[in-house]
Amino acid sequence: MIRLVTVSPCYNEEAVLEQSVRRLTELFDRLTAQGVISQDSLMLFVNDGSRDRTWDIICELHEQNPHVCGVCLTRNCGHQSAILAGMMTARQWADAVITIDADLQDDLEAIPQMLTALQDGKEIVYGVKVSRTADPWLKRLSAEAFYRLQSSMGVESIFNHADFRLLSRRALDLLAEYRESNIYLRGLIPLLGLPSTTVDDVISERTAGTSKYNLSRMMGLALDGITSFSVKPLYMITYMGLFFLFISLLIAIYVVHALIVGTAVPGWASLILSIWIVGGFVLIGVGVTGIYIGKIYNEVKHRPLYHIKEILSPHAL
Ligand code: UDP
Ligand code: MG
User: Fold this and answer.
1) What's the whole-number average pLDDT of the chain?
2) If we measure between CA atoms, which residue out of 194, 186, 184, 146 comes closest to residue 162?
3) pTM for the whole structure
4) What residue owns the CA closest to ligand 1's atom 23?
5) Domain spans of the chain, in order of start
6) Which CATH number fits domain 4-212+303-312: 2.60.40.2890, 3.90.550.10, 3.10.20.310, 3.40.50.2300?
């Protein structure tokens, strides 16, 4: 039997917590009765510096319900860090962890499917949003544009997967080896290289409280997602410089033509040519500097270079 720990980040979630615990408890009871998860499975709530009664409610629920545990962060550290804090705390207790937002907008029915996949030997199971009709159209549109932009920048991530996923104990142990501070879990987890699969996640509407992700937060996450995993933007500056130099060649031809036919005003030719040539060289210079910075950036992350899947030790001699 699997000892499951669900991890839910909470930021000002007083309105929804009790209901979430009730729904999770029902699910736990069902899965325990079916013999899928063990009786001592847990739901861990991470209070991410809430300004309302969130932590008090978590403490009360902890008293009443043996499944409920909590972690309280000293300040608001953001969704990604809160999830990581929860997972690293849950690691000591869990055979598997499922991260799910405290508002339980994700599909609870996907959880039994995730556990089946775990029993089939998968170490990572991604919840993939199949229908986003419950999301406001602007959110849906911007989220999908964001996934596309990311993959065009070479960031390996799962399309329409947010942070609803199952990680096995082994996956958590490998994740703990990543010591970088710009965390973008959706990009990091595929790097673990463990067997994975996806399950469908039908999003429902928030039953209480309001969304904590406004447009600027979403854009921040999108930028983090790209800049933590890709140095492509830096290379793009260099390419732009090369493009400018190419344009200056065309302009040179045009300028010579203008000089020959006599339409050029004195001084114009040298001015216009130098603008494009100097512009091109400046961009290339910035781009090349950027490429070196990109390499330094990758070095300082100290990401593990590899994860070992298996070792066949020498036979006893
Ligand atoms: N959250 C958090 N810290 C923050 C912002 C959000 O822990 O700084 C939590 C929040 O309590 C919720 C989850 O992250 O459990 C997702 O946030 P929300 O539901 O507001 O986002 P949406 O579903 O609208 O994208
Ligand atoms: Mg939500």
Assistant:
1) 91
2) 186
3) 0.85
4) 211
5) 4-212+303-312, 232-301
6) 3.90.550.10
